[in-house]
Amino acid sequence: MTTFQPLDVVRRSASVTTSPAPNRDVEVAKLIDVSKCIGCKACQSACLEWNDLKEPVGVNVGVYDNPHDLTPNTWTLMRFTEWENPTSGNLEWLIRKDGCMHCEDPGCLKACPAPGAIVQYANGIVDFQKANCIGCGYCVKGCPFNIPRISQVDHKAYKCTLCSDRLALGQQPACAKACPTSAIMFGTKAEMVAQAEKNVSILKTRGFDKAGLYNPPGVGGTHVMYVLHHADQPQLYAGLANNPRISPIVEMWKGVSKYAGMAVMGLAALVGVAHYAIKGPNKVSDEDEAQAKRLAEGKS
Amino acid sequence: MTNSWTDIKNTDLVLIMGGNAAEAHPCGFKGIIEARNTRGAKLIVVDPRFTRSASVADYYAPIRQGTDIAFLLGVIKYCIENDKVQWEYTKNYTNASFIVGEGFTYSDGLFSGYDEAKRDYDRKGWSYEVGEDGFAKVDPTLQHPRCVWNLLKEHVKQYTPELVERICGTPKDKFLHVAKAISETSAVDKAMTSMYALGWTQHSKGSQNIRCMAILQLILGNMGLRGGGMNALRGHSNIQGLTDLGLMSNLIPGYLTLPVEADVDFATYMGKRAFKPQRPGQVSYWQNYGKFFVSFLKSMYGTAATKENNFAYDYLPKMDVGSYDVLRAFEMMHQGKMNGYICQGFNPLMSFPNKDKVRAALGKLKFLVVMDPLKTETARFWEDHGEYNPNNPVDVKTAVFELPTTTFAEDEGSLTNSSRWLQWHWAGATPPGEAKTDTWIMAQLHLRLKALYAKEGGAFPDAITNLHWPYKNAADPQPAEIAKEINGYVLEDVENPTEPGKKLLEKGKQVAGFGVLRDDGTTACGCWIYSGCYNEAGNNMARRDNKDPDNTGAYLTWAFSWPANRRILYNRASADLTGKPWDPKRKIIEWNGEKWSGYDVPDIAPTAKPDTIMPYIMTEEGVGRLWVRGLMKDGPFPVHYEPFESPVVNVIAPKIQGNPAARVFKGDMANFGTAKDYPYAAVTYRLTEHFHYWSKHVSVNAMLQPEFFVEISEALAKEKKIEAGSWVRVWSMRGSVKAKAVVTKRIKPMQCDGKTVHIVGIPIHWGFMGAAKKGHGANTLTPFVGDANIETPEYKAFLVNIEPTTPPAVA
After folding, report:
1. Which domains, and CATH codes, for chain B?
2. A206 touching B, CB under 8 A?
3. Which residue among B113, B189, B244, B383 is least crowded, i.e. fewest CB within 10 A of its CB?
4. pLDDT in tens, B789-808
């Protein structure tokens, strides 16, 4: 397995400087075929084990999802949905591995105000750089999939790294390695798109006419993709976004309003300069000095 | 498994019934996904619950727990009536044509020969009619009214799709869909694999559940084929090894049996084990019993086992009852008749039915020794854990010794998996603290006992003092030494009778396999079926060459598969009477006019002619048994009986209700509840997130499924005003538990014989030790009744009641 050049940064949060022209030939992707997933949670335990994370023992609240949501320690979570298919009348138990989608156009990175706290590598991975994180939580707001979580312990943001550390050593992500049914596969994005086509065609022969690849264009495609039996209804899978895109507030803040704001700042500076040019520097009069002296001595 | 995990990919149809492979065997499940992706195989799941396996199935049909026999007899009837039978196979490779003796009857759920007082049958009347030549009579035309085929046809006649729906609650259309899919595999180029586990074994008629599918697989011609077979998915990494090595009270290694009291001497014992062929020229391989048995005695008693003393036959214990299985052991303990208990790698307080009875029984012991890597509930039964384990330590007089052992990852040895593969493993970590290997502990016990007997004598010390103990360090036998002993070795040179002067066997060498074992004391072998695992070629269990010519899934050079490194049992049956494979694409072995060869080790003598020697070499008949004469205690054919606790009356035999030959102890008969007080049908099971009662000690697993819960349908939740995630109390005639409620669409009420049956699903994994939340064990509720043949408790079908409740008091 080739290493995927994980450390070539192509984007950096809150930074104007860009990296040298990156080589994007080795974009990677994780493909999760939901139709092959048996919900065993091996991926979830592998994630905890590899990343040395500890999630406290919780309680049962009437479902199989444990913990009940992503947390600063749980970067991937099996979500279980019971759905009665109105067409066939059959029950379907839809099980989806939730976690960071590693968007090509990452909303978290766009929203992040801390320079270099979120980066995107040449291979497509979106990674959080803990040292630069200020814990503001804007990445949570910026994410169209509601993925990052802020730790109450160190006030930093956490999410799946796509095992960028393992990739650097030529290893696949821990979850993909642990998956017993090859429901999780990993490779270059091109390979995974081709693999998805095969998987989708098998699903179609099995009667799932609407089977398809989930690689949403609204975020420029993702580096974690799903094969879904019901690709026309992603929301069935524990509310997977139908058409995810970066929040308009983030877009506006980092887009139009950012430039508008900069324009206002620039204008203010210009006015200042003009004022100086016309009026010259402020001068202190004798009267001002006397007034100041009185104030300092406590007399009015 | 008759086949192997790596063979599942060769199938056309996977039937998961009586198991839940995705849930309990997630790693093996990959074979199913591969079969589907590469061959377009279909997966059908039949289960009371819509399981994780069902979530990826092509078809799911519900069934009420404990009614599998009715369903399968219905499928057999469907196949017969729709001419979906592999006729050549059925006529030649099964006992369909054998004629059963006169006088056999069956009516209203009972076969002839029943003794109600003994709850047992006189099975003599189930024999074949014997001809003047001394062999069983057959009618190859299948016309004789008492030939097995006609008896089977008659026996299944009543199991119509309508009756199946009444009993099983499986809607008729769903039953017919499944029956049709199964029946299509009667084609010679189609195979079905049956993947089952404890969903079939843990019933009062568990053995007959499995036999019923075996009958079906035989008439479909699916036995011995790639992608076919009866595939028992074992629930522990080495539970196959446990049964193989005879860790049952009535067995010795290799499925040989311990003598009973009536076997007063060696001659009597062997006389009952003649295994005379029932048809001319058939192999009846168990005729070699004496070779395996004597070689076993030689490995046990060494030089103390001589021809003169019948190889120390008298040293073996003689059973005074049929078996001292775990239910009987705890019954005796409860009665104060058993005073000491060594509990090795075992947590009976959590694993056995009727937890309150087990706890009381442990409290009557003088001493309890627990050998385990974990702090088990059994070792702490005397502690007070509030309502999870109410006890007053002051009142418990039992002395408890905890001996910490290594885990599988901390020692070396072999594990035998479901595929019958003996796979060697090496220590991956150093054991913590004072943990020692089980062999070290057992050696210490043995040496100390031996010394005590030598010093003080005793009523019969010979069996202990003469035990063969050939290890380099007597205090610490090494795994390789034990493995070599199990494989077997030569004690004396044996001349080759055909080539005088040449040695057939050379003293001091490992035997090549069980084929050379002898009954004259010149060979020793610890477990004949494992012979070949560590021979002169070395440790074959440690082989890791994964080449697989033509991708058949055989992997002959990976580890060692018993018997004789054979990967598919009965593989001779994959070829027809001329020795050609039924389906050339599924070739395993083939007859070339002189001998058998192919991808696997032939399950027949290499030169056995295909038209004369039949494939089922282990049976006296030479063929597969649709009918059994005396081997099954509860009947030559399976019959539908209700679980001992059932929500409905047995519609085929209202007076019989439960299996009439199942083993029930006196006091426990009074401990069965009725549908009036306990209206709901309960079933216990495992979850993927946990392994029995071990993994709750691991924080990651504990987090993934933190807390004891039960699963009920939305309808029952509504009826009982139970909210998802709230506390419920579930109680049976044996006890009461509190758990969280998971309200799910995956469990639906069923209609059985006009009655709505609600199901309560109870996962087993919680106790009062470990990292997970404390929980009442599921076996607080289960009944103390064992299968008629192997005494496995009926964990899978019993009655409970349920109501909303308040959280348990903090312990």
Report:
1. 5-235 (3.40.228.10), 326-413+427-453 (3.40.50.740), 571-613 (no CATH), 663-804 (2.40.40.20)
2. yes
3. B189
4. 988 999 999 999 999 999 98
